[in-house]
Design a protein that fits this description.
By secondary structure, this protein is α+β, with helices and mostly antiparallel strands. The chain contains two helices and six strands. Strands 1, 2, 3, 4, 5 and 6 form a six-stranded mixed β-sheet that branches. α1 crosses α2. The radius of gyration is 18 Å and the shape is elongated. The two termini are about 35 Å apart.
Length: about 120
């Protein structure tokens, strides 16, 4: 699963990190931290910690915020939704969501030093 798969279903324009030229309407920006781990020198588990911020100009777009929440529910992702804040310097509203998910993948072939 990719974060983009989740946000596409919410129906908002979105990008990772930041828009160079943000859309005029409501949009989302996400940041993703990835931790790779495993056992026996094999990183086969990927943990994704994601923050999604929904921005809207001049008004609180409750429909867009609810669309993101419904989409996270459909994917079965446990999430934290934070109180909406008005960013005075940017003249926009921001609602943040945080969620995590874990993927278990195949082992990756690699050459290990002979002393291992």
């Amino acid at each position: 699963m990719r974060v983009a798969d989740v946000l596409e279903q919410a129906g908002l324009p979105f990008t990772e990190v930041a828009f160079n030229n943000p859309p005029c309407g409501t949009y989302a920006v996400y940041n993703e931290e990835i931790t790779r781990r495993g056992a026996d020198l094999a990183n086969c588990i990927t943990e994704h910690d994601v923050t999604v911020e929904v921005y809207s100009y001049d008004f609180y777009d409750s429909e867009a915020v609810q669309a993101v929440a419904r989409t996270l529910d459909r994917f079965g992702l446990e999430y934290m939704k934070y109180e909406t804040a008005f960013v005075t310097s940017e003249h926009l509203y921001c609602t943040s969501f945080e969620f995590s998910f874990i993927e278990k993948g195949d082992l990756v072939e690699r050459d290990l030093p002979s002393e291992w």
